């Protein structure tokens, strides 16, 4: 791969726990906004299934100012039914996320793992939990 990866950014879809969506739905949301493709490289569904988004060789569209050297993974969920940020991810999602992050660190050993909210200038709660503390 020709991209120099040094950051892995964890996101949430900001969907309530009743929404069981995946990469196809998020791709449609993003392309409906005029984007070329889904912004994330991978999506983790509520049941823990890891779905392919953008190819890892292509810069994402998930963290402004960081896309060229990062990988973005999105967990479905992250808000309650009133749209308030909440850690409502399933055990299956967390298991898949841990395996995914381990694999990405093996492939890109000099990478830092962060939540979207940890990036400078980001005012969102995304992904609705402290990724560094959890990992």
Total tally of structural domains = 1
CATH class: Alpha Beta
If helices are DSSP runs of H or I spanning 4 or more residues, what is the number of helices?
A: 3
Biggest beta-sheet profile: 5 strands, mixed
What would CATH call the architecture? Answer: 3-Layer(aba) Sandwich
Helix content: 10-25%
Overall pLDDT confidence: 96
Going by helix content, strand content and strand pairing, the class is alpha/beta
Instruction: Quote the CATH topology.
Output: Lysozyme-like
Encode the helix/strand succession as letters: EHEEEHEH
- End-to-end Cα distance, whole Å, is 26 Å
Beta-strand segment tally: 5
Q: Could you walk me through the main structural features you see in this protein, from its secondary elements to its overall organization?
A:
- This protein is α/β, with parallel strands linked by helices and 135 residues long.
- It has a single domain, classed as 3-Layer(aba) Sandwich (Lysozyme-like), CATH 3.40.80.10.
- 23% of the residues lie in helices and 16% in strands.
- The chain is built from three helices and five strands.
- A five-stranded mixed sheet has the order 3-2-4-1-5, with helices on one face.
- The longest helix is centred in the C-terminal third of the chain and has 17 residues.
- The model has no long low-confidence stretch (mean pLDDT 96).
